[in-house]
C-alpha cells in the first residue's frame, strides 16, 4: 500500500501552485502524489519537485490523508469517484462545481471543502474564498485553509457567496490587467516610449497594491492623500468619474457573479 499525506488530482498551473505553496511551507514532495494524465507535464513536475510521486491514474492501493481536486470542471466527477474511496477529506478548486455534487461523487464518508482561488496564487499572492459543507468539521476546514494560505489570503464564506468571490477576486485580476493595458496605452499616447510606460504602469499598480496591503489605511484615505485640490490627480480622477469608471467596475463584478451562478446551475 502507498500512503501519501496529500494527493493532488490534476497537475496543471493551479494544482502546482498549491503544491508549491505547501512545499515552501515544509511539506516534503516525497509525501505527495500528483495524478496527471499528460506525460510531459508529469515529467516537468518531477523535475521541479525532487522525490514527488506522479501517476496517470490512482492505483488500487493508493491512499492519502487528503486530496485536492484541481482538474477542469468537466473532469471533476471522474476525479472524485477515483479519489473518494481512498481519502477522508477533499478540497476542490473546480469552478462552478457545487458541494452537493462533490458529496454525491465522493461519497458520504468524505469531508468536503470548496474553494475559489485566483491566478495570483501562482506567485504566492492569491486571494481565495473557502466554504465547507454543513458536515465539514473545524479540523478539515483548518486543513483546507492551511493549503490555501500557503499561496495567499483566505476568506471563509458560505457556499452561496462563492459566486460573488468569483466575480470579485476570481475575475478581478483580469480587471487589473485591463487597467494596466489602458495605463500603458495612455502613457504612449502622451509621449512615453512603450517600454517606459510599461515599466511605470506595472510598478505603479504593484506599489499601490502594497501600500493598500501594508499601509493599514482604507483605499479612500489613500486616494485622498494623493489628491491635492486642483492638482493633476484631481483632474485625472474627474475624467475617470465622468466616464463612469466606478460604476463600470461595479457592473463587471455583478456580471461576473451572475455568470458564475449560471455556470453552477444544472443543465
Mean pLDDT: 95
Give the overall shape, derived from the CA principal axes: elongated
The helix count comes to: 11
CATH class of the largest domain reads Alpha Beta
Largest sheet: 8 strands, mixed
Distance between the termini: 40 Å
Structural class: alpha/beta
Task: Fill in the CATH topology of the largest domain.
Answer: Rossmann fold
- Using only C-alpha atoms, the radius of gyration works out to 21 Å
pLDDT < 50 stretches: none
- Compute the number of strand runs: 10
Annotated CATH architecture of the largest domain:
3-Layer(aba) Sandwich
CATH level-four homologous superfamily name of the largest domain: NAD(P)-binding Rossmann-like Domain
Task: State the domain count.
Answer: 2
What percent of residues adopt helix (DSSP H or I)? 40-55%
Spatial ordering of strands, largest sheet: 4-3-2-6-7-8-9-10
Beta content comes to 15-25%
N-to-C series of helices and strands: EEHEHEEEHEHEEHEHHHHHH
